[in-house]
Amino acid sequence: MGVTTYTQEFTCSVAPARMFKALILDSDNLIPKLMPKSIKNVELIHGDGGVGSIKQTNFPEGSHFKYLKNRIDALDVDNCVCKYTTIEGDVIGDKLESISYELKFEASGAGCVCKMTSHYHTKGDFVLKEEEIKAGKDQAVGMYKVVEEYLLANPNVYA
């Protein structure tokens, strides 16, 4: 098994605590409302939503993927850090064991910098190419931008 690691950053105009609350703590409710064509719903399969919990994200009919399951590995609300692992679903395909992520929202001026590190744990000798995950990275940034726009338009939400 090999591991391929990618990092990315983006800046936004929203404070880190608000982005963290929206994208991490309440994403199960918020993301399906903001992006119903991309995410059908998110179900808590195991646990209380904290560390060790497993959440299943279901995609709408006609989507390229059907579902994925994420396990929450670490959750530090005070420092706006979350670590989770995609452990199941057709997103992983037959070439990956899992994908682990670390998200950190750091203050920067009046807004924040979101730092995301992704570790792709491959099966056998498979080598993941950057082009193969570019669409996923672009989709993640797109989701963050939708949430940022929503929070800017609704300054009292998650305040």
Automatic annotation (TrEMBL):
UniProt cross-references to Pfam families, sorted A to Z: Bet_v_1 (PF00407)
GO MF, one annotated term: protein phosphatase inhibitor activity
Similarity remark: Belongs to the BetVI family.
Annotated SMART domains: Bet_v_1
Record-given protein name: Bet v I/Major latex protein domain-containing protein
Keyword list, A-Z: Pathogenesis-related protein, Plant defense
Organism: Theobroma cacao
Bet v I/Major latex protein domain location: 1-154
GO CC terms of this entry: cytoplasm; nucleus
Origin: domain of life: Eukaryota
GO biological process: abscisic acid-activated signaling pathway; defense response
